[in-house]
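Researcher: Structure prediction, please.
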Amino acid sequence: MKFETILYEKKGGVAKITMNRPEVRNAQNGRMIEEMHEAYQVAEKDQEVKVVILAGAGPTFCSGHDLKTYPVEEGALFRAANTEGKWEYEKEYFYEKTLKPWRMKKPVIAQVQGHCVAAGFMLANMCDLIVAADNAQFGDPVVRMGAAAVEVFCHPWVLPPRIAKELLLTGNLLNAEQALQFGMVNKVVPLEQLEEETLAMAEHIAKMPSFAVGMIKHSINRTMDIMGFSNSLNAHFDTHILVHRTDEALTLLDANREKAGSVKQFIQSRDEQFSENSNK
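Model: Predicted structure follows.
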């Protein structure tokens, strides 16, 4: 099976989907989002596959959406260049497709190294389990661009509320040990052991009765839905789209991105402006 932006491989009962744009730190464009969704569907239909691993090639798991092609339309369906089109497009690509690993019957394990931020943060946290390298860093810095967090508002579900607030209000990062302490990740391992340890966890789960595993996942997810998980995510998505049309967002994201010579310069300028040392 050939893809442009991801790799798909199968070993026994484990399928592995690898985001394969290391030259841009696995930033997601429309093609990658579509191909990940397709790969999940392939794994779901394959009776031999019991567990799926989501990984990122190179030193970074995922740096978020590709701001160079923002709003990530490269290789994706056309959308009208207005608020209505933005709502429709982001609902399909940044929300529904991101929820695919959460909704599928088979368990999905995120294999995380380096930066796991913004859209990468929600990708990893829609997986059932997370194995993190000791160099992993997690965050959602989009408040620095005038946005009210990313599209899938998983933060208060995977972190204690005050920690989620600190993460989102400051735009700062959590390291792997902090993420483990707060219960967001299942295991932290040395970087050189990440692939081996993640595969070992996947292969162990793959030995379990597959229907029972699927029903356990279903029951835990349903419990969270009874507590308001899906309604909470749905409510925030509309808030996210609304905030993108504010003067703050139009300046901090759109205008500043156009003035910057590159995405790297834009990110550096953004973070310098809001760093802890900026007022010293």
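Model: The chain has one domain: 6-243.
Researcher: Thanks, that helps.
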